[in-house]
Amino acid sequence: MTGNRDMVSYLYSVTPLEELASAGRVQLLVATISSDLYDVALKILNNLNLAREEKESLWFPLKLLAKKPSGIGNKSQPSVWERCLNSCFKGQFCNKAMMQVSAHQLVDRLWKLFTNDTNFSTLVSRHKQLVAEAAKVGNVEFLVILIRSYPNLIWEVDEDYGTLFHVAVEHRQERVFNLIYEIGVLKDNLTSLYVEGNKSMLHLVKELPSLDRLNIISGAALQMQRELLWFQEIEKIMPKSSVNEMSGPEEEKPLKDMFSENHKILQKNGEEWMRNTANSCMLVATLIATVVFPAAFTIPGGNNQETGVPIFLETNWFTGDSLCL
């Protein structure tokens, strides 16, 4: 649990895991995933022979991986260069890349254990939960691994969250949302779907996101710009009938007007931020000009206080010949 990789590797090499109960091995698997020790976790999983009724305990490790967007790489195998460096320097170099490859293999292995099960199609609620958790945190690589093996995940609609793209819009995860452009013309069917409360993607994007997603960019003006880009991008791919509809059954305002109203405070803060930034820049420019302007007209050495004649006027450095040289 402390993440001591060297000690864990040593203990794994001297511990007969086959003598441990299945529950104990699963607990070790969870602990290594929680501590980002994906290489050891993969070894434990490869030697984990569970009965069919015990495989359900592996949903939790898979859910843990869904919440680790930075831990999973886009490659299932390390490059030759990474393997050479890792073997020559005993894991001191390319350690992060090797961990990401191990995490990728770990997700792929766990997911295949479930997809190869005959009862896999009955666990739709579990699938939706995994997709929603990964989409919330922007875990693109996790979603790609799952979708490549089971493309129907794109079309599965959760009653609370909608599709994975609705979750991406609500939580402003642009990398996850960009997967919609890989679908082609079928994306129109996804954008026309409504989630709980009869909300489309435009309904979700007209609301302000959570503060942790809003504050990934500093400055209210840049935050407002990002929100506007989100609305324009969703508006571009939505059906025209949805774009021009009212915000709700009791509302008579179009969605674009509701977007402006919900972002009014952010827009005001952005304008104030721009004014403060402009004033700060003007102050700095004034200070620079105050120093540079007199310096440009000050003769080196200064002037004689009584006569006003430059002190170095008669020296060779101030003659025309010296200047030409």
From TrEMBL:
Pfam families: PGG
Domain of life: Eukaryota
Source organism (scientific name): Carya illinoinensis
Transmembrane parts of this sequence: none
Residue ranges annotated for the PGG domain, each copy included: 271-316
Coiled-coil intervals, chain numbering: none
Protein's name according to its UniProt entry: PGG domain-containing protein
GO CC list: membrane
InterPro entries xrefs: PGG_dom
